[in-house]
Amino acid sequence: MLSLEELPLAQTWSGMEAALDKKLCRHIGVSNFSVPKLKALLEVARMRPEMNQIELHPYLQQPEMLNFCRTNKVHITAYSPLGSPDRPSVFKEDDEPVLLKEAVVCQIAEQHGCTAAQILINWAVQREIVVIPKSVNPARMQENLAAASLELTADDMKNIAALDRQRRYVSGAFWALEDGPYTVANLWDEKEEV
Ligand SMILES: NC(=O)c1ccc[n+]([C@@H]2O[C@H](COP(=O)([O-])OP(=O)(O)OC[C@H]3O[C@@H](n4cnc5c(N)ncnc54)[C@H](OP(=O)(O)O)[C@@H]3O)[C@@H](O)[C@H]2O)c1
Fold first, then answer.
1. Most buried of the four, 79, 96, 140, 166, by CB within 10 Å?
2. How many domains does the chain have?
3. Where would I find the H helices in 4-87?
4. Per-residue pLDDT tens for 90-125?
């Protein structure tokens, strides 16, 4: 595995720009980029990343990232919007909060006569964020698609905004290999304990 010193992001990005030049792809973007990494990339990029795909849900609302991306015209895709309940248990904590059972979200769902998953999806839609809930179940896929037509009230949005707690479900620990160049801290450019 190459470190960012051995293979700087600017070099990787120029390879992606070349792929776009040659029409080998239609769009280029990034995933799991922090604001500092995006800033550094935008300084050297010939073509801006169209998208940053990041974990985003009411427990990890990332307001600074949203502002930065809006200002710099980078779209955001929200992954794990339902709290990624089926990720391997080795990546879960025993006492982790379960987003689909969050009392505030469940109460709002009851008021709208829909499911907690639909509230979580619509919350992203109302913030004008692309959202990619994963399901292998056709009925849930229908349910998730139907969430687009809900309308959360200003009060609902305010109550959900109060749930932010910088809680990642995808901690990134599996990218931090022993003796490898990456740590959870240099991945997110945040404190080690997130
Ligand atoms: N770029 C990255 O680093 C990154 C990291 C993580 C994830 N992702 C991507 O993000 C997407 C979604 O993330 P994710 O799979 O981690 O988490 P997620 O979408 O938050 O959660 C998926 C789980 O929610 C369940 N589910 C789906 N719809 C539901 C509903 N209406 N009611 C109740 N449960 C429901 C699914 O079960 P069923 O399938 O049984 O319905 C599955 O267990 C995936 O495509 C994934 O590849 C990207």
1. 79
2. 1
3. 9-21, 35-44, 63-71
4. 889 989 999 999 999 999 999 999 999 999 999 999
Distance 135 CA to ligand 1 centre (A): 6
Q: DSSP character for 149?
A: G
Of 33, 37, 80, the one to substitute when testing ligand 1's pocket (max ligand atoms within 8 A of C-beta) is 80
Query: Is residue 134 in some structural domain?
Result: yes
Q: Which residues make Cβ contacts (< 8 Å) with residue 14, sequence separation at least 6?
A: 46
Which atom of ligand 1 is nearest to 31's Cα?
A: 1
The answer as to whether 194 is a domain residue is no
**CA-proximal residue: ligand 1, atom 36 (nearest):** 135
Collapsed DSSP state (helix, strand, coil) of residue 43? helix
**How do residues 33-68 score in pLDDT, each as one tens digit?**
999 999 999 999 999 999 999 999 999 999 999 999
In a domain, 193, yes or no: no
CATH number of the domain bearing residue 143: 3.20.20.100
Domain limits at 116? 9-188
